[in-house]
Amino acid sequence: MNVVLVLPVALALAMDAFAVSVGLSVAQKGLKRNQTLRLAFHFGFFQFVMPIIGWLAGLSFMDSIRDVDHWVASALLFIIGCKMVYEAVRGREKLREGAGDPTRGLTLVLLSIATSIDAFAVGISLAALRMNILYPSLVIGIIAFLLTLLGTSIGPVLGKTVGRRAELLGGLVLILIGIKIIIDHTL
């Protein structure tokens, strides 16, 4: 698969990571450099690994996975988005540093999986086409990493315009991405 074909696929797959990184950055009123790098690394790494896993799975049981990938991604984004909306509406105080950090722990893993489920599906498709997986996966991972960095840098600018309801907006963005995934796969 050449760069002319891989780059548009990589850009399309990275849009979820970009949108989530913007939403998190808005909700957190900006991310620190270590948070940004942690988020970009995880999103890029999962976007790199998931096509490989999908490719391997596609070689053995392609049809059974394709039917549920969008539901898993949508559910994960919906749960995390609802949690952010709930916390914004509830008006919780920001906890001490390190607590509730969406770039750590289970939240980071769930977001990484949710934003890379489509990459898993692309891996299955590449297996069906009997294409090599390493080069596309590498490009997909690098593009996701770079767009996550871009998204986290845009978030604080949006946060200043949105004001106090930034976390609400971030949660709604995640919910809308989840809904979009369902619509894209059911229409």
What is the first-to-last residue Cα distance?
28 Å
Strand content: under 5%
The helix/strand order is HHHHHH
Number of helices: 6
Give the quaternary arrangement of the chains. single chain
Can you summarize the main beta sheet? none
Counting DSSP E segments of at least 2 residues, the number of strands comes to 0
Q: Please bin the fraction of helical residues.
A: over 70%
Q: Using only CA atoms, what is the Rg?
A: 16 Å
Total domain units: 1
- Mean pLDDT comes to 78
Written overview of the protein:
About 85% of the residues lie in helices and about 0% in strands. The protein has six helices and no strands. It has helices spanning about 5-25, 35-65, 70-90, 105-130, 135-160, 165-185. The chain is globular and about 50 Å long. It is mainly α. The chain has one domain (about 5-185).
Keywords:
83% helix; single chain; globular; 6 helices; mainly alpha; 187 residues
Write a compact overview of the structure shown:
By secondary structure, this protein is an all-alpha fold. It contains 6 helices and no strands. Helix 2 packs across helix 4, helix 3 packs antiparallel against helix 4 and helix 3 runs antiparallel to helix 6.
How does the SSE layout of this entry go?
Layout: H1 3-27, H2 33-66, H3 69-90, H4 105-128, H5 134-162, H6 166-186
